[in-house]
Amino acid sequence: MKRWTAWQNWVAVAAGLYTVLAMTWTTEVGQSAAYMLTGGIALIVIGVINLAAPGMPAAEWVQLVVAALVVASPWMGSFASGTPMVAWHTWIPGIVALVASAMAIKPTMRMYHEHHPVGSH
């Protein structure tokens, strides 16, 4: 995998950007703005890290965990039931990033093992 070419990480960055921008057209419910901003920025940052330095399985797993936290954030921030539209603007990009992140793990593991064979130390 070359730098800046993994489509899965571009999807995670786009999902993070959408989550942050969705705050501009949704009404804040409870702590929704804080969770959307934090989760969106975290997805953007880890996605860019994975794009800039491919082949780091740990970073891909971090991206997967961040995406899962974005999906869970409407429940953690208590805005899942108050206004479901706000939650949907978090759930959908979170699920998209979660699926894309899961799809990135196997190629990253393969690339890592090609460049770091067992017993090469």
From TrEMBL:
Keywords: Membrane, Transmembrane, Transmembrane helix. The chain crosses the membrane at residues 7-27, 33-54, 61-80, 86-105. The keyword Ion transport does not apply. The keyword Transmembrane applies. It comes from the Bacteria. Residues 7-101 form the SPW repeat-containing integral membrane domain. This is SPW repeat-containing integral membrane domain-containing protein. It comes from Paeniglutamicibacter sulfureus. The lineage of its organism: Bacteria, Bacillati, Actinomycetota, Actinomycetes, Micrococcales.
